[in-house]
């Protein structure tokens, strides 16, 4: 067995680095994310995860993601996209933001935060303090876990 000089030994050590320490490969990071939540890294989940998580924090509907999948030649049905989005949010990788009875946005920023809804687009409200709501006390045995506000906006002239 040939002896490795220190440079190639370092390279060999890097190749043996534990999975969680590799950086820079989006699919690798997704696999780590999925492994942490118990989601199986199927090809469809990895493709959709890559579309979702490789572009920073954002808000998408299932239809938005379907359009992106089509544009990127990722062959998935809308039903699969719905299922995957719900699996991702069930695993804590996305937050669901329901803005009315008919539309749900999926937010890649999973921290609790507030939104403006402007002409059908969800926009994060920068870290500002929302006036405390004058809430009645929760029913016995319950506590407030989170308060998330969606502020619906319309044109000032309307
Ligand atoms: Zn958001």
Structural overview:
The N and C termini lie far apart (79 Å). 35% of the residues lie in helices and 14% in strands. The longest helix has 13 residues, at 78-90. The strands form 2 sheets. The protein has a 3-stranded antiparallel beta sheet with strand order 1-3-2. A 3-stranded mixed beta sheet has the order 5-4-6, with no helix packed on it. The chain has a single domain (19-153), classed as Winged helix-like DNA-binding domain superfamily/Winged helix DNA-binding domain (Arc Repressor Mutant, subunit A, Orthogonal Bundle), CATH 1.10.10.10. Residues 8-22 have low confidence and may be disordered. It has helices at residues 6-15, 26-37, 43-53, 62-71, 78-90, and strands at 59-60, 95-98, 104-107, 115-118, 121-124, 150-153. With 158 residues, the protein is an alpha+beta fold. A hairpin with a 5-residue loop joins β2 and β3. Residues 59, 107, 109, 113, 115, 124 line the site of zinc ion (ZN).
